[in-house]
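Hello,

Our lab assistant flagged a job as stuck in the queue for most of the afternoon. It eventually completed. Since we weren't sure the result was trustworthy after the delay, we are filing this so someone can double-check. Below is the sequence as submitted and the structure that was eventually returned. Let us know if re-running is recommended.
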Amino acid sequence: MTSKLPKTTLNLKQFLLRQEVLKLYRDIFRTLRKISDESTRSELKDWARSDFRNNKHHRDETAIKSMLYYGRKSLKDLERSLALSKS
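-- returned structure --
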C-alpha cells in the first residue's frame, strides 16, 4: 500500500507560496472562461497548463515569487483586454 502523504513536507513559507500559485492558477482559468472564442480559449488553457507544468519543478522561493509576479501581471493584462473588448 502506498502512502498518500507527500514525500517531502512543506514548511510554512513553502505552503503559503504554494497556495498563492494555486490561487493564481484558479484565477487564470476563471478569467479564461470569459473568452467567447472557443479556439482561443482552448489554446490559452493549454498554454497556461503547460506553463504551470513546465515550472512545477522550481523550489527556489525567489524564482517562484518572480514567476508569480509575472503571472499576476499577465492575468491583469488579460483582464484589461477582455474588459476593453466588451466595451
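-- support follow-up --
The delay was a queue issue, not a problem with the job. The result is valid. The helical segments are 12-32, 38-54, 61-86. The chain has a mean pLDDT of 92.
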